[in-house]
C-alpha cells in the first residue's frame, strides 16, 4: 500500500485560455473524511474528475490507491465510489433492475449496507428512476456507492438542492453506515455546517490551487475576530493594508470596527489599543465565517477604495 492513498503532483488543467488547476499538489493518507471547500470556479470538480481519470491534466500527475489516474484498472475502479451533484442515473430502469446490475459488478457488494441506506429514503424496488425525487436519487446513489465497499469515496456536492429531511437522511446514512477506518472520503460542499459536522481535515482551494490542508478547528484558531471603537478613526490616516497586518476583512457597523485577521501571532487587542481603540473585544469565530473571511480577503480593500472615491465625488 502506498503511503498516500490520494496524490496529485503539480497538476495543471487548461480549458481554452483558462487555467482551472494551477500547479496543484495534494497528498492524503488512508482513512478519514477530507472536505474540499472553495468558491465557485475554484477547481474542485475538475480536481475530482482528474483524480477519477475522467479528464486528463494538461500537465502533472495524479493517483488513487497507488494507481495513475490516467490508467485506472477495472479492479481499482471497483474500489472507488463516486456520487456527484447531478445524481445521474438511467431514467428508464427501476430501482430493482439498477441495483441488480450494480451488484453484479462488485464482488464485495454488501447488501445489508445497501438495504440500511435505502431504508432511510423509503425507496420501493418497483419505482422507476424517472419517478424519484432529487433526495431519493441521492439516497440511491449513496446506497450503491457504499454497498460496493469502496476504499475511496468521492462526493461532489452530493446534497446540493436537497431539502432538510433528505440532507439529514443522507448524512445519517454516510456517518453511521460507513467504516471510516477502511474508507477515505473526499467530500466537496458549500455548506459549512456539513463540513463542520463530518470533516476530519479541511482542504481550501482557491483559483485552482490548494491553499491549506488542516483540521477545521485548527483553521478556526488561525482566524481572530475583534470588535473595537475608536476615539478617532485611524483608518482615515493610513492605508488599511499597511495599518492592519494580516487583515482578512474589515467592516464598520454603527460606531464599531469589526476586524478579521489571519495568523496574527502578537496580541491584536494590544495592537488596536495602541492605535486608539476603546476596550477592544475578541469574539469566537465559526468555521463558516472563518472560511468566508479567508476566501473573500482582499475584497475589503476594493470596497474601501470604492467608498473613498464616492466620498470625494
Briefly say what this structure is:
This protein has 313 residues and is of the alpha/beta class.
Give the key terms.
12 helices; alpha/beta; 313 residues; Rossmann fold; elongated; 2 domains; four-stranded antiparallel β-sheet; Alpha-Beta Plaits; six-stranded mixed β-sheet
What does this structure look like?
The strands form 3 sheets. The chain has a 6-stranded mixed beta sheet with strand order 6-7-8-3-9-10, with helices on both faces. It has a 4-stranded antiparallel beta sheet with strand order 2-1-4-5, with helices on one face. A 4-stranded antiparallel beta sheet has the order 12-13-11-14, with helices on both faces. A hairpin with a 2-residue loop joins strand 12 (247-253) and strand 13. The chain has 12 helices and 14 strands. It is elongated and about 70 Å long. The N and C termini lie far apart (65 Å). The chain is α/β, with parallel strands linked by helices and 313 residues long. The protein folds into 2 domains: 6-214, Rossmann fold (3-Layer(aba) Sandwich), CATH 3.40.50; 220-312, 2-Layer Sandwich (Alpha-Beta Plaits). Mean pLDDT is 84; it is low at 234-240.
